[in-house]
Amino acid sequence: MAAITKIEAYVFTAEDDGGGTDSFVYLGLGGREFALDTSADDFQRGAAQTFVLGDGGNVLNATTNDPRRPQLDTSDLHLFPVYLRIEPSGSEPDWCLERATVTVNSGQSSLAAYDYLSLAGTEAHQKIWLGTSHGKLLHLKRI
């Protein structure tokens, strides 16, 4: 297969009251976890963000949140789940997630994409709350 050089995680936080969070959010992929954190105020109510890991990375601690260190490979993606995980903290520990997609090696022939298709849409039942009282993990499916 191919070396993973770039991961893009698109996350849209719902506009619901209390939907934004101060918690830590992680992406699990290829047997590793990556911190989704930038210098901005991440995961605010109604915010859409794309977190880039690896080539062109925009996350804090980009060197340690890089799929090239150690090198991950697309041939291993089927061996491990792809997920988003919240570690509740701060004054707003819960999070209402409206949409999430993950793309590996965008623009290359070895492209892999992940989604949680039940969140595709704008209805109230097409969102998910994550946190201590709701569950902390959302697995994504390869599409």
Written description of the protein model:
It is a single chain. This protein is mainly β. It has a single domain (6-142), classed as Lipoxygenase-1. The protein is built from no helices and 9 strands. Strands 1, 2, 3, 4, 5, 6, 7, 8 and 9 form a 9-stranded antiparallel beta sheet that branches. β2 and β3 form a beta hairpin. The chain is globular. The model has no long low-confidence stretch (mean pLDDT 96).
Keywords:
nine-stranded antiparallel sheet; 143 residues; single chain
Per CATH, which architecture? Sandwich
Please tell me the total number of domains: 1
End-to-end Cα distance, whole Å, is: 18 Å
CATH topology: Lipoxygenase-1
Radius of gyration: 15 Å
- The number of strands is 9
Helix content: under 10%
The name of the CATH superfamily reads: PLAT/LH2 domain
Q: Oligomerization state of this entry?
A: single chain
Query: Low-confidence spans: pLDDT under 50, at least 5 residues?
Result: none
> Count the helices. How many?
0
Main sheet record: 9 strands, antiparallel
Sheet-strand content, in percent, reads 35-45%
Structural class: mainly beta
State the shape.
globular
| Main CATH class | Mainly Beta
